[in-house]
Amino acid sequence: MVRNTATSVVTIDRFIIEQEREHPGATGALSGILTDLALAAKMIANKVRAAGLADVLGSAGQENVQGEVQQKLDIIANETIVKAMDHGGRLCCMASEEMEEIIPIPDKFPTGKYVLLFDPLDGSSNIDVNVPVGTIFSVLSQRSTGTHGTLADALQPGSTQVAAGYVIYGSSTMLVYSTGTGVHGFTLDPLLGEFLLSHPNIRIPTTGRYLSVNDSYEEHWAEPVRALMRRYRGLDGKRAAMNVRYVGSMVADFHRNLLGGGLFAYPANAKSPGGKLRLLYECNPLAFICEQAGGAAIDGVQRVLDVQPTELHQRTPIYLGSKDDVAIASEMLGAH
Ligand code: AHG
Ligand code: MN
Ligand code: MN
Question: N or C, which end of the chain has less CB nearby within 10 Å?
Answer without folding.
Answer: N
